[in-house]
Structure formats: structure tokens, C-alpha cells
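Please, is this right?
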Amino acid sequence: KMPTIHWEKKNSPRTARLIKWCKINQDARLKIFSDSAKDAKEEGRTRQQMTTQKNTYMQQLAESVFEGDEDLKVREYFQAHPLAFVKPIQGRFTSLRKKYNEINLQLGQAGAGLSFEELNENEKTRTLLDRLLQTFPWWVDLHGWWRTNPAYNTSFSTADPGQDFSAEAMDV
């Protein structure tokens, strides 16, 4: 039977390995998260489309996360059944996306569309982010990847990032 995969607290090195793999393997990451044409254009590169099965990348990612796992039972099961670990990786991305969007909700629609650098320039959002990042340090990397992707950033407004509709409404 497959061991239960935990990702929080003492098991957060698994998430750290997952994020590290995504940072190192940019082309695969772009394909896993479905590269945005807008981002590719802004960055002056071609859009990465899914040419290889997403599962292949997920298998490579699972190998990176679980091959040297701290838990011997997890390592042994991974060696015997590597494909069984794709689902826990997908589940982790789902939970990361949920937590990522919980933070974005606190930043507000306009704030969720700003870059980390832009958010850091504003003392109010910097203070809020500093507090939020203590409980969810993965947000910075995820925001760099998901900020303009509506499939992952459900809080993002298509309005100009930084535009404050509520403040403008109060002025009327």
C-alpha cells in the first residue's frame, strides 16, 4: 500500500524540492502550467506548448521530490511504483494553488496582479506580504509563475494592476 504523503511542517522539504525543480526546469514548468502567450510575448520568447505529455514532466518532478525522500517507506515505494507519485504531485499543486489564492485574496484584486517587486515597493503591501510569507514562503515563486495565469491566479483582475476601484468609487 502506498504510504501517505505529507507536505506540511517537517515534510516541507518535499515542497522545497518541488519548487526547486520547477525553478531549474523552466521549459517543463511552463508546459506543466500552460504557458501564457501574453507572458511569452512580454519576455520576448516563443510560447512553450505541450509537446511532451504533461505526465512525463510530472514523473520527472516526482523523481526529483521523492527519490531521496527522508522517509524510507516513501523512497522504497517510489522505487517500486514511480508512476503512483504523479497524483500526489498534482494534489500538491492543487493545495499550493488554493493557499496561493488565499494570500492573493488578502492582497485584493489589483494587488494580486502586481509583481512581487511592485508589491514590495508599497509599505502597506510589503508589511502584509512579510506577515503572510511567514506561513507560506512558496508564494513568491508561485506568484512569479502564476500571477497572470487565470487558471492559477483566481484573484487577479484584468484591470490595470494597482488600480483601486473602491477608492475611485469613493471619490465619485
Summary: The longest helix spans residues 86-112. Confidence is low (pLDDT under 50) at residues 160-172. The chain has ten helices and no strands. The CA atoms of residues 107 and 128 lie 8 Å apart.
